[in-house]
Write a structure and sequence with these properties.
The protein is built from 15 helices and 16 strands. By secondary structure, the chain is an alpha/beta fold. It has a ten-stranded mixed beta sheet with strand order 4-2-5-16-15-6-7-14-12-13, with helices on both faces. Helix 12 packs antiparallel against helix 13. The two termini are about 25 Å apart. The structure holds NADP nicotinamide-adenine-dinucleotide phosphate and magnesium ion (MG). The site of NADP nicotinamide-adenine-dinucleotide phosphate has 19 residues, from helix 11. It comes from Tribolium castaneum.
Length: about 425
């Protein structure tokens, strides 16, 4: 009896000193402003004290993208394909003002486009549910996973201004054969747009969504406006049906899960009165808009998880669902205590580590990541929150002493985590 107690005590003491071993590295992509500060705190207080983690580091902050002529973004994208897990901090997408602010030689693009093209994946977003955070849509008690296609449509298309009375045509050239379609006869100034998509990319998107839904045991709804776009959206619908029938129907039946094609307006209305608990697949533009609507409906954008998963399911990039929070960073630069919510960034780390754990069959790492997520949620559920969550927890008349600064919040999570691992 005495001997077992000593062994237990010793192993507990030993356990607190032993970090979880991870055999393969993750790709760490650093970024800008407030999220850069938050990422460093998360790493130093919540990850590295507990996990012996190899990190292939790329500094994609705007000054370094400028110094390397953006080579660093290309290198980071390639590294993610090599190591299969990328954890990315938010980065500035420069505009004219940023070009002046950082004295840039060019308006370097965001690394996201490059990584998105390299991964050719699906973007998934999901809100973290905390019991005490009042949701704007009260009925949503289960998560809604938003699956967004990230190829073509308005994001790869061409839009232009027509200045004078003109006619526009669409020409399809197949070998030497040309077919011309008249689109519109302008009597005055106007605009035009052409978008495109491919069957292969839609097939990959559908496969990712069905695979994710099976993993999470959620039914799938794919919503388009196929009554309006009888060729364009019909191809999306046909491909979803084909992939489902061929590869997923029996697995879905076994798991008692369903798949339905929906009209987007009908689905938007249905979603509002649902209790959540489904995967909502959407074309790129619809996913961009509706994932923000759903994120806010669950309480705060600061509670959103964001990941990009390759269509074969092997490679993942996680990042916060928000930008670099410039307004808060300006305060931070002045030395003012800021209260930016780090939860979306914490979950970028945990979801990246969970994927590493799954690929390497490392249950210790997987359960560490889950414990960190639980510690974060239970900190919020004890009423310890950053300013953005204060109105959702204490009402709009909340007091200044009812919320914590960013570092204080991370410290509270670290205390909880330290007791659990
Ligand atoms: P943002 O960084 O998402 O912030 C917009 C506002 O949302 C903030 O001012 C703040 O509102 C609130 N907010 C966002 N995240 C928050 C958090 N974690 N905690 C509390 N409040 C939060 O968007 P932005 O100001 O439009 O963009 C800033 C920079 O980020 C831009 O340079 C943009 O290019 C970049 N960006 C990068 C990515 C990416 O890397 N994936 C994505 C989007 C934007 P209050 O001011 O009301 O407190
Ligand atoms: Mg958006």
């Amino acid at each position: 009896m005495f001997k077992t107690q000593i062994v237990k005590l010793l192993s507990r003491k030993y356990a607190t000193k032993t970090k979880i071993a991870v055999s393969k590295p993750i790709v760490e992509i650093d970024g800008d402003e407030m999220t850069k500060i938050i990422f460093a705190e998360i790493k130093n207080k919540l990850i590295l004290p507990f996990v012996e983690l190899g990190r292939d580091y790329y500094d994609c902050s705007l000054p370094n993208r400028n110094a390397t002529k953006n080579q660093v973004s290309k290198d980071a994208a390639e590294a993610i394909l090599r190591h299969n897990v990328g954890i990315k901090c938010s980065t500035i997408t420069p505009d004219e003002e940023r070009v002046k602010e950082f004295n840039l030689t060019q308006m370097w693009p965001s690394p996201n486009g490059m990584i998105r093209n390299a991964l050719n994946g699906t973007q998934f977003r999901e809100s973290i549910i905390c019991r005490n955070v009042n949701k704007y849509v009260r009925g949503w008690t289960k998560p809604i996973i938003m699956g967004r296609h990230t190829f073509g449509d308005q994001y790869g298309g061409k839009d232009l201004t027509i200045e004078k009375p003109s006619k526009i045509y669409l020409t399809v050239k197949t070998g030497d054969h040309e077919e011309k379609f008249e689109i519109f006869d302008y009597k005055n100034r106007g605009v035009a747009m052409v978008t495109f998509n491919t069957e292969d990319s839609i097939r990959n998107f559908a496969t990712s969504c069905f695979r994710m839904a099976l993993e999470r045991q959620f039914p799938v709804y794919f919503a388009t406006k196929s009554t309006l776009l009888k060729q364009y959206d019909k191809l999306f619908n046909d491909v979803f049906l084909e992939v489902y029938e061929k590869n997923f129907k029996s697995k879905f039946a076994q798991a008692n899960l369903t798949f339905e094609l929906r009209l987007i307006d009908d689905m938007a209305a249905q979603a509002m009165k649902s209790s959540g608990g489904f995967l909502w697949a959407l074309k790129s533009y619809d996913g961009d808009v509706l994932s923000d609507v759903v994120g806010q409906g669950f309480g705060s954008m600061g509670l959103m998880i964001h990941s990009l998963i390759s269509h074969d399911g092997r490679t993942i990039m996680t990042e916060p669902a928000h930008g670099t929070v410039t307004r808060h960073f300006r305060e931070y630069q002045k030395g003012v205590k800021v209260s930016t919510n780090p939860i979306s960034s914490i979950f970028a780390w945990t979801r990246g580590l969970q994927h590493r754990a799954k690929l390497d069959n490392n249950p210790d790492l997987g359960s560490f990541a889950q414990t960190l997520e639980k510690s974060t949620i239970s900190t919020v559920e004890e009423g310890l929150v950053t300013k953005d969550l204060a109105p959702c927890v204490f009402g709009t008349e909340f007091r200044e002493d009812q919320y914590l600064g960013t570092s204080e919040f991370i410290d509270k999570v670290a205390q909880k985590l330290g007791k659990l691992v």
